[in-house]
Sequence to fold (1019 residues):
Amino acid sequence: MAKKSPVLAFAKELPQNIFAGFVVSLIALPLGLGLAIASDAPPLSGIIAAVAGGIVVALFGGSHVTIAGPGNGLVIVLLAAITTLGEGNLYEGYLFTLAAIILSGGLLIIFGVLRLGAMSEFFPASALQGMLAAIGIGILAKQFHVMLGLTSIPGGTIEQLMRVPDSFLLFLGLHPFAGVLGAGSLLFLFLYSRIRNPYFHLIPAPMWVVVGSIGIGYYYTLFLNKEVPIDPELLIKIPDQLFSNLPRPNFDKLFDLNFIGVVFSITLIAVIESLLSIKAVDKLDPRKRRSNVNKDLRALGLASIVSGFLGGLNVVTVIARSSVNANNGGTNRSANFFHAAFLVLFVVLLGDQIQRIPLTALAAILVFTGYKLASPENLIRIYKIGPEQALIFLITLVTTLFTSLIVGIAVGVLFTFIVHLFLRKSFFLFSLNIFKPNVLMYREDQSGNYYVSVKNFCSFLNFYRLKIKLDQIPESEHAIVDFSLCDFVDHTVMEGLHDYQRSFARKNGVFETIGLDIHASETQHPFAVRKSLPINVLMGLQNALSNRQKNIEQLAQQLAWNYNPKIENDPKGINRFLFFESKVVNYSVNSLYDDTFTLFDLSFSEGAFITKEDLKGTFLLFKSPIPLPNFVLDKEDFKTALYHWAGFDDINFTKHPDFSKRFHLSGNNKKAIRTLFNSELIYFFESHPIFHIESNGTHILIKGKERLSSLQEIKIMLAFSKDLLELLVKQQ
Amino acid sequence: MAFKHFKTLLFGFAFSPSLKANVYEATRLANYFEAALILLHVGEKTKEKENQFQQLLKECPIKPNEIQTYWEEGNPVTTLANACVKYNIDLLLLGALKRENVVKYYLGSIARKLTRQAPCSVLLMLNPSVERSPCKHIVVNGFDSPQTHETVEAAFYVGTSLNTEKITLVEEISESRVAIAVNDDRSLRKATLRKEKIDREEKLRVTDIVEKIPATKRDGLKWETQSIFGRRGYSIGHYARVVRADLLVMNAQEERQFYHRFFPRDLEHILAELPTDVLIIHSKSHG
Fold:
């Protein structure tokens, strides 16, 4: 493959980035409006933040497929800032908060310059989760009432939660239509991932909610010739002159303690949310690049300053929107830019329609967001890692709810340390060794492997030392991390190592941890958790075989193949297929195999956070007898046609118009693909059921339906792949 | 500045439970080095103690040709340090506790003070034993320092004397020499290339040191090199532990200042957490 000039490559990828940016803007619009309203700021301030983020971070950022904009985590801090700093006057409070946002942008830049990107590692994972859950509950408590049409419920989070039943009883009397619309929207958001229609999923769920509620409004005005039965109070208001009267940030409280507290809270949450998102998004990047975190922090800081001066909220990297970007083919920062450009277009051209969006529908989106942050699944997952982790989670959660974010996370950190002391029963291990270097890394001269040895203890307090070393190892290499000299490893480290394992697997490297098994047996190592998935133990999946499993077992006996109903947490070789590049593989189960073929059910997820969808499918994998070019063969449909329009290639054969019409074939090495797909092979595909087929050079992966395949379908898949294998052998 | 062989060894003994192991180890070492051994007791001399000690010496299976025993009174540190000068000692043997506790670290135990004050080379013995545990693997520093030549030579001398199987020369390279912060893929690639270059340069330098040692003095000894990017003085100790080396040979500290005890560097890291037996080579020409 000839090396292309970067400009050419950029131009070639431009259409698909425009497309991805467009899809992202569909979700960024409702989220931007909603997050701003939830913070009691003017609705457009969220859009301004997204636009500033999109443009500035696209120009100066150091990541690739991330999207910047207003963040969920900040809602609570901004809301508190606007209400307290204004002392009752929301607009005044908003102006003070703008000043705080600008200052926190400055702090972010300093963070980036000082290369403090590793800072988020100093927070124990469980405490961090607890804090995020508290933020989620905060959003949920307030927005639940708004969703039902009751905008003025006073009190703190706890009080608001207590009033949820009251609102349920009240809302039908006050705003029945708007309330039902809100509740219906929430129901729709929960059910969205259940609907497995690919066309339907082209538009993200939040946009459906917005489009749907605007549509209902139009239905009333255009067809029924009636006023929309929604109180104008419950509709979004946008000022007429968008650009003439910009708000002026008010710096009068510069030395007020409250104000300084706000600046630090905003900065802290912005850093944490951005770093967590960047880390997560890097795992969805189809090009498997590593983001320059510190450069991104600087860009986010600059974007926050710009946004603050224009009257927008502060800018962070956001996970849900970024994952939508990665899933829709975004490849570089231009997608972030285009998402901003489309937002500007929306506001300028569709200002009238935006004003028809009911607040209750937006509130439903926020309730869903809050629920996802505070989802009970998180607590269950953490409880499975260890009861003490759940305790840390809960203590942080409760403290945050009753005090503030800063106090909450501080208590979480302190409590985690106390738990560690209690578990290890030795203060000296920590106090003696905390400032000492404890990590040795070298490249073994004989094998070329990277060997990392960790001494004394390794927890959130000094994980950064290990991280610095691990970051210096290219992910395509073989790394061995040895804990045999280390007395204590905590959950934050184990989770961090798991992340490394994932990124090494993505780039075909090997990342091994050794020395922990001895620990578990010798010292009952408390955190040497093999992270297993919650489902298998919780649901007791392993206890009894389901009917389908029994059928597969029977089939295995018939064919004299092997059957293994166990869950495999780390399926091998799967990540090297294009299909999984922007997806996360969870586990495989029910493998049916012989020497050549392996058939298995796979659980994988697409998207992240509120756009996350857990999917299951049946796959078949076999080794090709001949070396193959990498290719993807799929059914040609509306979606692939759209991709085609967005600049994804389709290889067509003039001699086989039927095949070209029905199949979408893509891959880099077009010449080799054309030689491989001879008339015989093409006839084979034409005359058989259509599967999604991929080659990674050595293996072929065949994907069944968008759901688990039935026994009947499994048999068809097996027969199909046997015939395909025979054909390939013939080509030899 | 060729390395001078160990001709006279000094061992300061005390009546502790490990006395037998210590004495057996000292006599054995002196025998291997074909050196004279001076045994010095600092403290009160009683008939009973003397008899007990003479009995012990008599039972000792491997002995050097020349053993002298002295009894002196006074401050152990100054007495032993003075004895090193008085008897023209080449190597001072010290038994060490495997881990010294916090308070002692800052006040300095006898061994630590002697390590800092001794005008000759020092061997810190971690696990003296009655039976000989073979010294299979020696790790020696390959710092870029004028003392290193002599230290490496000493390592080969000790290696041949003790029938060691392997010597590993460890070059600790400061991260600051790479001078590229790893931020993303591109900087990682740059840093990796730069490291490989430094690694090659260091290997050349260290190989050169070894090759300057006359072939007869490193006869049959297997040796290899290993570069480590990391904190100087720290990495080598950790490395010695990881590879389960039996002896670590180090340069003596170039400068000794009080604040180094608080901001440990080079040797202090190793003294704080002895990974294995440590031999500190005090080069006379740079003393």
Observations:
- Chain A touches chain B through 28 residues (CB under 8 Å).
